[in-house]
From TrEMBL:
Signal peptide boundaries: none
Record InterPro entries: PhoX (IPR008557), TAT_signal (IPR006311)
Name assigned to this protein: DUF839 domain-containing protein
Organism this protein belongs to: Streptomyces smyrnaeus
Classification of source organism: Bacteria, Bacillati, Actinomycetota, Actinomycetes, Kitasatosporales
Domain of life: Bacteria
Pfam families the record matches: PhoX
Length: 465
């Protein structure tokens, strides 16, 4: 077990807003294409208050509101649903004339984490609805090179608690249900807790049939190994027994659109001697010989997966496993927080883990929180993505003011955006979390959601490439 430590504190100038972490940021970018870019910069300067009270950005940056909950969908299918969450950007067709001045178009696929009490449900659409009583799903936006919205419609409806997901290797979106309700519970007519494949053109249409072999549990995010086609999955369970980290071995690896319906084997990660990842506190801690144990019942017909019998040695749990992405030759995943008062073996305000499948090695790369001198519940990292300047963008999901933070390869933390929409009161202000941060394929635009009130922003400016 080796340990390397680095401590960084970045303050935004907003009262009570700070990020602290320990770890070597450069580890996150080893072997990635982004690592060859001119990363390692110190950010873009202080945030400038937005006179319109929506989004504070550094000087020189500007935003455009693409979509707001409660507005009419351009398709005429109903209103824009609430609870904007995970999102991905895909390259669309390039047009030589008209909108966008010849720059490529972009598809945005956006989750709506609606339960049965949502403010604005996802409209049910014939052929795109799984369970007509469920209120979650996805919407799809098409924007041109100037970030003008051309189309906006329902991508899938009748799902529940669509939190995050991830892009497939063939240009579709896998949307994940963060729930385990069965048919007959809470008014649902079908079982929930699945992954669905959402497309946005005629060649790759949405399928309302769940990818059952990938498991029924409180899904959060997925990431593909581009070499093998193996899919990694996180489980966001905040109460005991906490969630697991999974891998899915498709019967048709890298098989293209629809191939995940052919089935495969679902396995859960076991780190020998580590029943709870929160017990690991030293960044750089590495564990070789990671094991993968086949899930006894992926459909959880009688028992939730995290409660099933994995035999001698048990299984490794972690509280609030959330963001997940592939970088270089490794998969990275986030534990948003752990609290001993809720049953975890340790306390932290965020961990980022790296798993190297070739070496079967798991490494704790970054720790946010208590052991880094600052203890702020607002430090909890959630969605995470690679930025075009060779760093990361991390969405904050905690108390107090909410931010998108940038993390450079040289270990600098900087504020990129701050939510300015107060959903509380003047006496007790509250701000909606950020989610779904992603970049346009050409790197010119950062797209990000405000969860409440549901808002999708397109942020442009002097990005460093």
């Amino acid at each position: 077990m080796s340990t390397s430590r680095r401590q960084v504190l970045a303050r935004t100038g907003a009262a009570g807003a700070a990020v602290a972490f320990s770890g070597a940021l450069s580890e996150l970018f080893t072997g990635t294409a982004a690592a060859q870019a001119t990363g390692g910069r110190a950010g873009y300067g202080p945030l400038v208050p937005d006179p319109d009270g929506l989004l504070d950005l550094p000087k020189g940056f500007r935003y455009k509101v693409l979509s707001r909950e409660g507005d009419q969908l351009r398709s005429g299918e109903g209103k824009v649903p609430s609870n904007f969450d995970g999102m991905a950007a895909f390259a669309g067709e390039r047009r030589g004339h008209g909108h966008g001045h010849g720059r490529g178009r972009t598809w945005l696929v956006r989750n709506h984490e609606n339960r049965m009490d949502s403010r604005v449900p996802v409209p049910t659409v014939e052929g795109l609805t799984y369970d007509p009583e469920a209120e979650g799903g996805c919407t799809v936006l098409e924007v041109d090179g100037d970030n003008d919205v051309l189309t906006e419609r329902v991508g899938i409806a009748g799902t529940s608690t669509n939190c995050a997901g991830g892009p497939s290797l063939w240009g579709t979106w896998l949307t994940c249900e963060e729930t385990e309700f069965r048919a007959g519970e809470e008014g649902y007519t079908k079982d929930h807790g699945f992954i669905f494949e959402v497309g946005f053109d005629r060649r790759r249409p949405t399928s309302v049939e769940p990818l059952k072999a990938m498991g029924r549990f409180q899904h959060e995010a997925v990431a593909f190994d581009p070499r093998t086609g193996v899919v990694y999955e996180t489980e966001d369970a905040f109460d005991k027994p906490f969630g697991l980290f999974y891998r899915f071995l498709p019967d048709k690896p890298k098989g293209g659109y629809g191939s995940l319906h052919a089935g495969g084997r679902l396995e859960a990660m076991r780190v020998p001697g580590v029943p709870d990842l929160s017990a690991v506190t030293e960044t750089g801690s590495s564990f070789d010989g990671v094991e993968w144990v086949e899930v006894p019942d992926p459909l959880a017909a009688q028992t939730p997966i995290r409660l099933q019998d994995f035999g001698k040695g048990g299984i490794t749990h972690a509280q609030k496993l959330e963001g997940c992405y592939w970088g270089g030759s490794c998969v990275y995943f986030v534990s948003s927080y752990a609290r001993s008062a809720e049953g975890s073996q340790g306390d932290h305000y965020g961990q980022i883990w790296r798993y190297d499948p070739r070496r079967r090695r798991l490494t704790l790369v970054i720790v946010f929180g208590p052991d880094t001198d600052v203890q702020l519940p607002g430090e909890e990292p959630d969605n995470i993505c690679l930025a075009p300047n060779g760093g990361l963008m991390v969405c904050e999901d905690g108390a107090g003011a909410q931010h998108v933070y940038g993390l450079t390869r040289k270990g600098t933390v900087y504020p990129m955006a701050r939510g300015a929409q107060n959903i509380g009161t003047p006496e007790e202000p509250e701000w909606g979390e950020f989610a779904g941060v992603t970049f346009a394929p050409d790197g010119r635009t950062m797209y990000v959601n405000c969860y409440t009130p549901g808002t999708t922003f397109a942020v442009t400016g002097p990005w460093k490439h």
